[in-house]
Every structure is written in structure tokens, then in C-alpha cells.
């Protein structure tokens, strides 16, 4: 039985001498039996994207191609406190922070996200740049003025019990809560200051 190597040599000896097989001739259109047809190249239209079908290209056409379309809507990401992912909202440029909060809460409810919110009224929430930002953003300011596309929405605490008066006071801003927390301090921190 011949080895596969020897079997292959018999059919390829012609190709080694510079001769092509019949299949190669037909592929390269070199064979005498194969007729060669010249295909005509289709005409290209250089002014196809200029916007005008006739006439020469002008400076206005070049400027029209270079100008960037104006921004008409914004895609914003709003993360709601204790929620797993950001809610994506598309709003027009004229929208305010109040509009963003209302749209984000509507989208949150529409997507049936967890945890379920007690109320989707935007007056019960504050909008921040991030969860680490203590100051809430102005509700009447336009979204374009913020310079960010990512925001954090946290609910206001409805009622905070007062320690000394025994009654209830209205909800405090996050910055006031942070100031109150820093005033308390920890005793071991005072010891650390003393030891330095």
C-alpha cells in the first residue's frame, strides 16, 4: 500500500514544474477553452453625499458635511437609593431637575423595580450628583447647567423625632444631618488628637 506522502507526489509533479492544472487555468482565466470577458466598471457618483444632485461642489456643501447636528435630547442615568441599577431617562434640553426626578420615578415604577417605593411623588425626594454628595441640587435648574449625566435620587425622611423637645420636626437636608453627625464625634478620636 502506498504511503499518503507518495500518493500526493504523483498528482503535484506538474505544478512543481511551473504548469498549472486545468482547474487553476479556469480560475486564472488562462485556459484556451475559457473565454475572458471584460466587465465594465460601474460609474461612481462623486456628488452623492453633497446634498445637491447637480452642479459642482461648493464650500457650502463641505460645511454642510462637517457641521455636527445640534443636541436635542439628553440620556440621563438616575440611581435611586437602595436600587440595584440606574434608571435611564431621555429628556429634552429644557427639562429641569424636578422633571428629571418625576420621569425617573415614573420609569422606576413602570419597570417594577425593587424595593417598591411608598410614593412616586418627586417632592419626597432629593437629587444629588452622587451618593457621596451631601448637598441636593436645585429643583428649578436646567439639566444642561449641571454638566453631568449621572445622578443619585434619595428619599427625604418624612419625620425626624426631636430629642430634646419630644415632638417632631420636619425633615432636614442631608448636609444638616451630616453636620449633626460630625458634632457628636467619637471619644477615641479626641484621645487620638490628644496623643498627637
Helicity level: 25-40%
Count of separate DSSP helical elements: 7
Structural class: alpha+beta
Mean pLDDT, all residues: 73
Order of helices and strands: HHHEEHEHEEEHH
User: Uncertain spans, ≥5 residues at pLDDT below 50?
Assistant: 158-172
Strand arrangement across the biggest beta sheet: 2-1-4-3
SSE blueprint:
Blueprint: H1 4-16, H2 22-28, H3 59-66, E1 73-80, E2 86-92, H4 97-110, E3 125-128, H5 143-146, E4 150-155, E5 159-161, E6 168-170, H6 174-184, H7 187-195
What does this structure look like?
The protein has 196 residues and is an alpha+beta fold. It has seven helices and six strands, in the order H-H-H-E-E-H-E-H-E-E-E-H-H. It has helices at 4-16, 22-28, 59-66, 97-110, 143-146, 174-184, 187-195, and strands at 73-80, 86-92, 125-128, 150-155, 159-161, 168-170. The protein has a four-stranded mixed β-sheet, covered by helices on one side. A two-stranded antiparallel sheet has the order 5-6. Strand 1 (73-80) and strand 2 form a beta hairpin. It is elongated, with a radius of gyration of 37 Å. The model is unreliable at 158-172 (pLDDT under 50).
In short:
The chain has 196 residues and is an alpha+beta fold.
Key phrases:
7 helices, 34% helix, alpha+beta, 4-stranded mixed β-sheet, two-stranded antiparallel ribbon, 196 residues
